[in-house]
Amino acid sequence: QTGSANTNPSDSADDEYITNVSIGTPAQVLPLDFDTGSSDLWVFSSETPKSSASGHVTYSPSKSSTAKKLSGASWSITYGDHSSSSGDVYTDKVTVGGFSVSSQAVESATKVSTQFVQDTVISGLLGLGFDVGNTVKPRAQKTWFSNAANSLAQPLFTADLKHQQTGSYNFGFIDTTLAKGPIGYTPADGSEGYWGFTATGYSVGGAKLNRNSITGIADTGTTLLLLDDDVVNAYYNNVESAQYDDSQQGVVFDCSEDLPSFSFGVGGTTITIPGSLINLTPVSDGSSTCFGGLQSSADIGINIFGDVALKAALVVFDLGNERLGWAQK
Ligand SMILES: CC(C)C[C@H](NC(=O)C[C@H](O)[C@H](CC1CCCCC1)NC(=O)CC[C@H](O)[C@H](Cc1ccccc1)NC(=O)OC(C)(C)C)C(=O)O
User: pLDDT band at residue 195, thresholds of 50, 70 and 90?
Assistant: First the structure.
């Protein structure tokens, strides 16, 4: 068995990717942010304060004949961008891309931080990280993919995120027609809950790859490509107008700049991010100053291959073989 779900950029900056998920009986369809950087499936619900839930699609367990309260269970999560949410837990049928898990932990939000209140395009997150990262207490719950894995044709999923176009999350199979190049595989480290891996080197503007390895995570829930300062500087030294903008908290440059590509080696293959994908968005509507898709990871302490990098590739998250596959798109 397999599943295939379309995913769409949330806005003109590809800030987030939205995928519809069916929960309960009859199905309640919620737009969720699929996040390989976390391991909780949580939703805005009938238990979320009305003022916070305004503008959001919500899940009502009381309207689902298959919902069951997971008594005594609670959850609380804080993300890298300091957003947070918490609540209690139900189990219910959850269908993604036509594949159903009959008893999935659905974490219902009784509290959400301001960022989530304002982000009305999503009704929650579907974590695709490793189960060790799940925050439910007293007993951690499994992710939707972890519950699905044994019944899928293969215990893997792929992410095909695109710039301003519809992409896909496929479960249980690899559609190699989505890629232009071969899939390079490298071991994945799931010990922290993330999909950790090591790139073997990098280059700017199509030069030969150096041998400076980069260890980081493949994270569909992070918008940017966040790398060490020496890599970021090596890149922006090639961009005439690039400068750090305190108010934007990142490197900005003239939108008219012809940006160089950024390449990294992984699993014996090379992934090249075209310069166009590194021009993320004008700093404000109509501005001729643009915000960089490549920024420093210095204040995070971990390198993150977020959506800016993932958009250049078909990425295989292979749980069965504890490995990540990257193919040029
Ligand atoms: C709880 C742990 C087990 C896991 C947890 N994981 C993470 O924090 C990484 C994870 O991928 C989280 C998942 C995101 C949380 C916030 C909502 C969207 C998903 N990523 C993050 O926390 C990183 C935050 C994202 O990069 C935001 C997302 C965003 C975009 C637009 C509007 C609002 C929010 N982008 C964002 O800020 O984009 C700009 C800079 C261009 C504005 C952790 O590391 O603590």
Answer: very high
Q: What is the mean pLDDT of residues 309-322?
A: 98
Give the residue from 220, 194, 41 showing the smallest Cα distance to 132. 194
99-157 per-position pLDDT tens digit: 999 999 999 999 999 999 999 999 999 999 999 999 999 999 999 999 999 999 999 99
Residues assigned a catalytic role:
35, 219
**Per-residue three-class SS string for 156-219:** EEEEECCCCCCEEEEECCCCHHHCCCCCEEEECECCCCCCEEEECEEEECCCCCCCCCEEEEEC
User: Is the distance from the beta carbon of residue 16 to the nearest atom of ligand 1 less than 6 Å?
Assistant: yes
Q: For position 231, what pLDDT does the model report?
A: 98
Q: Where are the beta strands (DSSP E) in 41-83?
A: 41-43, 68-78
Of 328, 326, 2, nearest in space to 155 by CA: 2
Instruction: List the residue whose alpha carbon is closest to atom 15 of ligand 1.
Output: 79
Q: Is 136 helix (H, G, I), strand (E, B) or coil?
A: coil
What pLDDT was estimated at residue 126?
99
What residue's CA is closest to ligand 1, atom 9? 37
Residues 6+ apart with CB under 8 A from 208: none
The predicted model scores a pTM of 0.97
- Please report the sign of the dihedral spanned by the C-alpha atoms of residue 83, residue 224, residue 240, residue 236: positive
Is the minimum distance from the CB of 221 to ligand 1 under 6 angstroms? Answer: yes
**Per-residue pLDDT tens digits for 278-308:** 999 999 999 999 999 999 999 999 999 999 9
Buried b (16+ CB within 10 A) or exposed e, 99-132: bbbeebbbbbbeebbeebbebebbbbbbbbbbbe
Ligand 1 atom closest to Cα of residue 281: 41
| Amino acid at position 72, single letter | G
